[in-house]
Amino acid sequence: MSASNDCGDGWKILLTLDSGVEISKRRSGSLHIFRSRCLLRSVSPQQFITVANAIDAAKQWDPDLVDARYIKDVEDNLSIIRLKFGENSKALFRKREFIVYERRESMEDGTVVVAVASLPKEIAAGLLPKPNNAIRGLLVQSGWVVEKLDDLNSCLVTYVLQLDPAGWLPKCFVNRLNTKLVMIIENLTKLVQTTPP
Question: Angle at which helices 184-193 and 45-52 pack, to 10 degrees?
């Protein structure tokens, strides 16, 4: 594991894990946007996205998640999802849920883009009323960009996240939470590499 400095493009590299996952951040308003990147060999973009979007398997790469389910498919490439973190989650996640939309696009060059963000509060409440014992967080922006490389069986995965967990938390805890979530890419990468194509 190593730490580094500014990339010159506004992203400050926080650390590079032994697995090759690079974690960086950039300021946006009062919070930071976090990014993780990883080169995956012998994994196609479609193989990665298939595992990343398998909502029933999400608990395998995010141990704090207690429930993830589709609420509604709006279009072939647009879904509404509920993500719930429960009683036994770490303090920053405890009893938080997110109602998000997920849009998936495949580009002509083989790049796959998945964008995720919270629905406006009123729309989320209309689709699924908020339980009294949960705090509904705000996923400002999140998503995957999976770029196909010249080597047909390799891809570059970039995950971006900006999140406000809602409820009062010191800003340093919110930023630590964001960093932890971005590091999920390491767990997901390990899962993809052990999943048959």
Answer: 120
The single-letter DSSP state of residue 131 is P
Which two tokens mark 173? 């805890």
1, pLDDT greater than 50: no
Helix, strand, coil abundance in the chain, percent, nearest 5: 20, 45, 35
Contact call for residues 33 and 141 (beta carbons, < 8 A): yes
Instruction: Locate 52 and state its tokens.
Output: 């990343």
- Residue 41 buriedness (CB in 10 A; 0-12 / 13-18 / 19+): exposed
Domains and CATH numbers, the chain: 12-193 (3.30.530.20)
Its pTM stands at 0.78
Q: Give residue-wise pLDDT tens across range 159-177.
A: 888 877 665 555 665 556 5
Question: In which band, very low, low, confident or very high, does the pLDDT at 2 lie, cut at 50, 70 and 90?
Answer: very low
